[in-house]
Structures are given as structure tokens and as C-alpha cells.
């Protein structure tokens, strides 16, 4: 299996990306690194290696898409950017999946424009695994598209549900609609309409729809798949991240207050590290972009080598499960009208 | 000063509400309790008191609005409910402010329908103080209305800013717009339009608008007032609450794992309690409903006596600062057209 890695994407590119990619190479995983050949080779040298290790290939790309460029224009105009080259390789079957820690917008637009969506899927969606008090749950969409229709949300529910079955090995995942209350009358017209579509899919036996779920209960294990528009999903995720960061910083300060608290901190160090690790996006490694014909994984912008290597392993697993094929087979259940828009 | 308290609202009514109200009574604060007289007297008896303490008045109301009733219909039809009676007393100047831990929807609709909004204010908004790594910030709206227009958001920004100045004593509060990125091009059409209105208010010197703010940075002190529609505000708040609850539970478990961690937990107990307290909604006491002619405070549904007593003190402080009067004076800055809808 071959995973294409955008070596120039992310805050710590190319060094950490290259390092992570090399860590991920194994009997079953080869990688193609796209980006400025010289820079990539220099990163490899920094790791103390004299030559390109077995299982690693470099495809040269002279340009880089920065975080503040208009996503679609960047992919279209910078034809020799590390991301565009990587997307072309994926489309041309030169690799089986793609990992990038670059601009989310560019990855979403680029994957849609170059690799294409599964036919009938209206929008791709970012579906991270969010830690909670159980094994975690899939949030979909966490920010690929800020604006959504009820049909998109229906499709997100199917995508998230299949993905949870395939990747998390959850039987009949409990699908909840993110809302500001549990009653079916809650939310904006978007949630009201989506509720009806999801309820019907539940009654038809296509989904295990459990109704509206509030943000707080989702974080405490109420569902396996949380469906929402990308704007709300972004707020949900970033608010939780902010609160986690706030508390963990306060705890850090607490344990350094004086000798007694310092001692106490040392005694629970191992356990604290476990809690941090569970909330750490590096350990999770990457967010699946669902609805695209082939697996595309967005790694966190601040990814270090470990995060990149985990993202590559997640990409390899996604190739094995092939959720896209399942979407294609079941697309008729996910459409509310026959018009097919291919943006 | 006299604060009207809905004695039957909330999960722990009437006992905890009555207890909290009696705790709040002081030289400057008297209370009127509305609800079933017998039940209220029984709660007072349970506290070991033989008669109604000085500064406490009971106004009988035979009905109770439950959490699952349609808010506006409940207020309109249950004319003798503890909340409706309380609202009528407030409108008729029998008291200076109102506190209720009852249904949020009923309080928002009821306050709008009975007490009325400040003329020109399109929608009332719930504005809780959210703890962060600084002194906290005002979130507005956190769920009074799920659907908003850009003009509502502009008005929320003014209301939040005045409130932060009046209640938190912050000079020139930094007002941010909740968005899924900091660039002015981010968000749905609602955020795009609101951004322009807020930018103009900033240029005119009416607001200290600092631009778009992501949920994570807001939690880490990026702004003093975070403006959003009620749906996103609800997601923002509940997601953070869920994460806080998740981590604090994990910490609790950690400290009981074995003798060493138990000891360690005892050593930092005091400090942990401080962190918990800072995140505890009971300590904050209540959420101001801004845009109504007189102060209305929504206490948390699960309020205990301490939370109610804090909410009553917050109500008294709100009477002193009188943000509504300031809104009335400055209303021309907050309107984008002259049509006046009074829902």
C-alpha cells in the first residue's frame, strides 16, 4: 500500500512531516513525499540518514500553498504545489490515500476538484474522532463547509455511521443530531428539516437515529456519531479544545505552586499524562475527509512527526475499509431528490 | 430594593429557591416569592423558621410552568403560574428585577411578552459570564433565539459591550464575532454580514470590535464579549461544559486509583476546589437576559440555594447599573433600518 504525503503542508513542514512519514514506513506501508526535493532531502539528512530509505519516494513540486490563500484558486492556479501534485497522484492511482497537514480549505476544495466526490454525495465532510468518557465519537462535519442543507446533514449521518462501523468497529452506531435541546421542535429550520429526514432513515432501518443531542451530552457519551453543519461543528470542537487547554494549564500551574503540590504532581504524573494523551489530537493523528472517492486525511496544522505517522497509519486503515465504496453502493438511501450537482 | 423570585422554577424548587432567597435578604435586598403559598411556607418551616422573616413577601400563584411546555403559550395561558405572576409584578413596578430558574424559553418569551423589550431592540439575548484564563467574558446570545439576523448580532454586540462595562467594569470591552476562522471572509452569510456591521460600528467609535474570534481563542482570553447566534452560543457553552465535566471526572477517578494518588489528591484538594469553583455555574449564579426593560435573570435549572442567592445579588447589581436605560439612549446606533417590530 502506498500513501501520498504532502511534505510541505503544516506548521512544522517539511522536517516533522518527513520524519513522521519515515516512521510510518513498514512492510505494508510505502510513502510518496511531494514537495521541494532539496528541502525534503535536507530533512532526511537532518535525521542522520545518508540516502532515501527503502519504501520512500519523492515527487518534486516547486510551489507551496499557504494557509491564507483562497483554497480553490490556490489548488487551481498553483499546479505545481505540493498539495496539487499529491492530489493528482492520488487521482491517477499512483497512491492509495493522501495525508496533508496543510490548509483545510485547500485540502477540501482540492480533493473535491481533483479527486472528486462519490457520485451523489453533495459535500465532503471532515469527520474527526472526538475523545469522550467512552471510546470517543465521530463528529461530522467539523468545518469543511460552514453552510449546509438538510440533505447534506442526512448524508453526513450516513457517512459518519458507515465510517464508525468501518473504522471504530461499532455495531449500529448511535447517530445524534447536534441541537440546542433534545425535543424534535428544537433548532433552526435546518435542524427541524434534518430531524425529519433522519427520523425517516431511522424508521426505514437505514440508520440508528437516536434524535437530537445537546453538546454537553455528546461530550459525555450520548452518541457514536454527532451530525452537524460545519460551522457548529467547528464551534463544538474548538470550544471543547479551549476548555481542555484551560483546565490542563490551570492544573499545571496548580502542581507547581509549592513543594507540596509539586510532590503531589509527581505522584500522579503518569496518570495525568494518560488524561492529556486521551485529549491530544497528535495521538489521534488525523481527520478523515469523507465523501471523496479515495481516502484523504487532514492532519492537524501543528502536527509533529508522531501525529503525521499516526495519520499515515489511519490512511492505510481507511484504504482497507474503503468506506467510499459503501457510500457508492448505498447512495440511493441518502438522496432526497434526483438532481445531481457536481460542484 | 426588591427582587421578585419565581419560587417554583427549577429542579430544586421550591426548597432550594426559597432557602437561597432567604439567604440573599439583607439590609438592601428584599424579596417577593411567587408560587403556591402552602409549599413556600412548608419550605420555610423546613429551614427551622416559625414565621416569614422580615424582608420576605409571598404572592400566591397556583400554577407551575413545566420545562416541556410551549414557552409562549404557557405564559399566556397559565395566567396564575409562578412565572407569569412574577412577570406581572415586575411590569407593574412591584419589584425591581426578577430571578427564575424555570424554563429558559418561558422566561425569554414571558419577559418579552409581559415586561417588553427596550424599544428598537429586536430580540432579547441571554448573556452569561463564561470563565476563562482571565476574568471571564460575556457570551451573547447563548440560546434565547436559535435563529438570528445580522442586525440582531449587531445589537447583541452593543448589549454585551455595555453590560461588560457596567457589570464587569471593563473599559472599552473587546468585542469579537464567533467564527470558524479569523479572516473576514469566514463563516456563513450571517457572519459575513454581521462582520460588516460590526466593523462599521468599530470605525464609528461605537464599539471596540476586534474581528472574528475562534471558539478556542475565546476560551483562552481573546475577547471580553463574544457575539453569536443563540444556536452557536448554546453549542459553544455546552461543549465547554461537557469537556470540563469530562476532565474533572477523570481527575476525580485518577485521585482515587490507589493510596499514592489518593494522598496526592488530598494534598492538592484546596487548589482543585478553586479550579472547580471557577468553572462552577452555581458560583456565577445566573445569566442576564439583556434587552428587556427591567433586569431579568435566568438561574441554572439545577440551581441550589447558593446559586439562587448569587443570582439575586446579581439581579440587585443589575438594577443599580441599569443597562436597559443605556440601551434606550443609544438605540439609534444599533439599528440598520427604521422598521420597528414588536413581537
What does this structure look like?
The structure is a homodimer of 343-residue chains. With 343 residues, chain A is α/β, with parallel strands linked by helices. Chain A has helices spanning 15-24, 37-46, 71-77, 82-91, 104-115, 150-168, 189-203, 215-219, 230-255, 259-267, 269-278, 281-284, 305-321, 323-329; strands spanning 2-6, 30-35, 56-60, 97-100, 125-127, 129-130, 137-140, 174-178, 208-213, 225-227, 287-290, 296-298. Chain A has a seven-stranded mixed sheet, sandwiched between helices. In chain A, strand 2, helix 2 and strand 3 (56-60) form a beta-alpha-beta unit. In chain A, helix 1 (15-24) packs across helix 13 and helix 3 packs across helix 5 (104-115). Chain A is globular, with a radius of gyration of 21 Å. Chains A and B meet through helix 8, helix 9, helix 10 and helix 11 of A and helix 8, helix 9, helix 10 and helix 11 of B.
Please name the defining characteristics of this protein.
homodimer, 343 residues, alpha/beta, 7-stranded mixed β-sheet, 5-stranded mixed β-sheet, 12 strands, 47% helix, 15% strand
Question: How is this fold's topology laid out?
Answer:
The structure is a homodimer of 343-residue chains.
Chain A: E1 2-6, H1 15-24, E2 30-35, H2 37-46, E3 56-60, H3 71-77, H4 82-91, E4 97-100, H5 104-115, E5 125-127, E6 129-130, E7 137-140, H6 150-168, E8 174-178, H7 189-203, E9 208-213, H8 215-219, E10 225-227, H9 230-255, H10 259-267, H11 269-278, H12 281-284, E11 287-290, E12 296-298, H13 305-321, H14 323-329
Parallel strand pairs in A: 1-2, 1-4, 2-3, 4-12, 7-10, 8-9, 8-10
Antiparallel strand pairs in A: 5-11, 6-7, 11-12
Amino acid at each position: 500500500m502506498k500513501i501520498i504525503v504532502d511534505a510541505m503542508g503544516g506548521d512544522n513542514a517539511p522536517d516533522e512531516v518527513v520524519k513522521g512519514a519515515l516512521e510510518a514506513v513498514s512492510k505494508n506501508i510505502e510513502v510518496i513525499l511531494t514537495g521541494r526535493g532539496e528541502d525534503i532531502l535536507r530533512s532526511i539528512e537532518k535525521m542522520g540518514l545518508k540516502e532515501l530509505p527503502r519504501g520512500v519516494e519523492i515527487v518534486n513540486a516547486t510551489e507551496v500553498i499557504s494557509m491564507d490563500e483562497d483554497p480553490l484558486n490556490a489548488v487551481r492556479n498553483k499546479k505545481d504545489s505540493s498539495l496539487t501534485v499529491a492530489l493528482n497522484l492520488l487521482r491517477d492511482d499512483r497512491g492509495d490515500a493522501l495525508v496533508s497537514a496543510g490548509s483545510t480549505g485547500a485540502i477540501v476544495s482540492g480533493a473535491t476538484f481533483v479527486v472528486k466526490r462519490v457520485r451523489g454525495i453533495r459535500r465532503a465532510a471532515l469527520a474527526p474522532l472526538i475523545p469522550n468518557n467512552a471510546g470517543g465519537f465521530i463528529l461530522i462535519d467539523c468545518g469543511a463547509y460552514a453552510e449546509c442543507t438538510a440533505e447534506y446533514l442526512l448524508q453526513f449521518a450516513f457517512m459518519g455511521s458507515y465510517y464508525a462501523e468501518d473504522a471504530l468497529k461499532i455495531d449500529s452506531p448511535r447517530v445524534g443530531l447536534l441541537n440546542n435541546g433534545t425535543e424534535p421542535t428544537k433548532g433552526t429550520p435546518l435542524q427541524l428539516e434534518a430531524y425529519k429526514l433522519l427520523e425517516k432513515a431511522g424508521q426505514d432501518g437505514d440508520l440508528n437515529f437516536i434524535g437530537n443531542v445537546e453538546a454537553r451530552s455528546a461530550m459525555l457519551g450520548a452518541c457514536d456519531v454527532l451530525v452537524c453543519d460545519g460551522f457548529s461543528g467547528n464551534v463544538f470542537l474548538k470550544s471543547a479544545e479551549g476548555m481542555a487547554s484551560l483546565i490542563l494549564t490551570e492544573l499545571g500551574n496548580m502542581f507547581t505552586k509549592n513543594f507540596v503540590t509539586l510532590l503531589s504532581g509527581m505522584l500522579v504524573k503518569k496518570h495525568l499524562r494518560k488524561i492529556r494523551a486521551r485529549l491530544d489530537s497528535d495521538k489521534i493523528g488525523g481527520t478523515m475527509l469523507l465523501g471523496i472517492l479515495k481516502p484523504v486525511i487532514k492532519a492537524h496544522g501543528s502536527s509533529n512527526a508522531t501525529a503525521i505517522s499516526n495519520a499515515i497509519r489511519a490512511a492505510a486503515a481507511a484504504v482497507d475499509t474503503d468506506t467510499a465504496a459503501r457510500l457508492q453502493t448505498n447512495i440511493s438511501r441518502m438522496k432526497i431528490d434526483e438532481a445531481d450537482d457536481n460542484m
